[in-house]
Amino acid sequence: MAAEDNWQTKLPTLVERTAFIFNNEILSDVKFVVPMSIGESESNKVIPAHKFVLAISSPVFFAMFYGRVAETKDSIELPDCDYECLLELFRFLYSDNVNLSGNNVMQVLYLANKYLVPSLVGKCKEYLRDNLIASNVFCILPHAQKFEDKDLEDRCWKVIEEQTEEAMTSDEFVTVERSVVESVVKREVLNATEVELFKAVNRWATKECERQGMTSDGETKRRILGEEIVKGIRFPLIPQKDFASVVFDSRILNYEEFGNMTKYYNGLINTPLPFLKASRIDSTVHRCCRFKTFCSPKERWNYGKAADCIILTVKKPVKLYGVQHFGSESGEYTVTTDIVDPLDNTSLVSRTGNYTSERSDADAYYGFDVLFDRPVILKADKEYKVKSLIKGPKSWYSEGGQASVECQGVQFTFRSSGDLLCDVKFVVPVSTSESDSKKVIPAHKFVLAISSPVFFVMFYGQMAETKDSIDLPDCEYESLLELFRFLYSDKVNLSESNVMQVLYLANKYMVPSLFDKCTEYLCDNLTASNVFCILTHARKFGGKSLEDRCWEVIERRTEEAATSDEFVSVVECVVKREKYKM
């Protein structure tokens, strides 16, 4: 193939130049001969390549071309792959790009593993995870098992459990190995009736007989299935009518088993059946969500060294399979989640793992599920602590958590784990404009009293407050939470929306160190557009240094400040000043 003169000068980057010689005769020193599709030896195509490029990207190609027994032929035949898939492998080695599709991803994954290209393996697995559905799950599952991809395998089983009937009626189900069929019938969680499960197993056995060139009679199918699969089907769960019309006609069960099942349906059985009678768990996922609104990360939610906890109570016994956590776009997290009995602080179930956030289509936020290896039974009216130690980037969050939620007829109640040792609660509006919507902040009198003389008098003075619930209508939830955060930890999350209210509370409850932090924040964020708003608070609370800084800004940027919305409220103070620049 002829190339334009000086083509190198028109491609400024190494990536562009390497991509240019992909599937190009220029400088090519090796050719790969591959069939258009596997098994079609009569129709071959040639892909020109470059030993150096392949060798720096794959240890297998390095050994092939530069090892002790290096390949000397300039034409190499690869009958175990097809043209399109090898082309995509090479495209990735030359350009870091790959065009994956449902038709080629499995073969590209095979080649990426064969030639030890882990970055391409990762892209193939990501594609499979993103495109995993019931109709292709039994195609993907064997590859996940073969390449020991535990995460992808778990995702496959989750799809099978949740969409069992659709997955089993797919064309791919009858192509799987017998071991996969056995694993399916042994699952405790399946979303299909037992008769549909039997139909799928019978269909697989019939197809397997055809593959082996055998007659698909009942006896042969029984032998191919084996006792583990037959005994894994819970025949007592199949209605008698379906048993007679479906199971009986298949002739897979023997005479004695048919007789025992007939006695079972008529209540005449005296000996134990060889089949399980316990119902499988319906895999339909019921999610109990206590949030209605969701916020993107922005300044928070940050994860620290301490675990995030909440206390959970249910009104009816339930099986808890896992806990969903907030995440972030493409965010990766390391999480240890425990369900703890607060009475003796013992962990009832625990799960540690690495998780990647996914977008929730229904609620439009990013999150991930931490699923336990086994469900934990939550007893009615007993408190459990849900505890997660999370390491990772800032996540989505919500501030509108409901204290009580009903899901599938079960009442779930949530409260902050801070209620432990709590001896007072503060009831505050969520925002000053929505005083009818209130939230509760649990607290501890001792901690508040050692940090604020006002709280000291409130709880330990001569006229100490005796109620365990105190209404504070003059502040809002977020601002009081920041006041308490400071009293408990010497830390505060100030923002433009809360700093004025926190300043007010710091002054009201006589916490000068927090007052100074608010003043410092305001000084650092003082502009001509907000100066008159801040000046009002500085004069009100006696912040002399802050007031002086405000006047400095007004004197330097008088015209801009005077056109702000806040100017009108303090116009009387402004006209008394003698020094202006306008």
Automatic annotation (TrEMBL):
PROSITE patterns: BTB. Keywords: Cytoplasm. The keyword Cytoplasm applies. InterPro entries: BACK, BTB/POZ_dom, PHR, PHR_sf, SKP1/BTB/POZ_sf. GO terms for cellular component: cytosol. Pfam families: BACK (PF07707), BTB (PF00651), PHR (PF08005). It is found in: Cytoplasm. GO terms for biological process: neurogenesis. Its main location: cytoplasm. SUPFAM superfamilies: POZ domain. The keyword Cytoplasm applies. Residues 28-102, 422-496 form the BTB domain. PANTHER family: BTB (POZ) DOMAIN-CONTAINING 2B-RELATED, BTB/POZ DOMAIN-CONTAINING. This is BTB domain-containing protein.
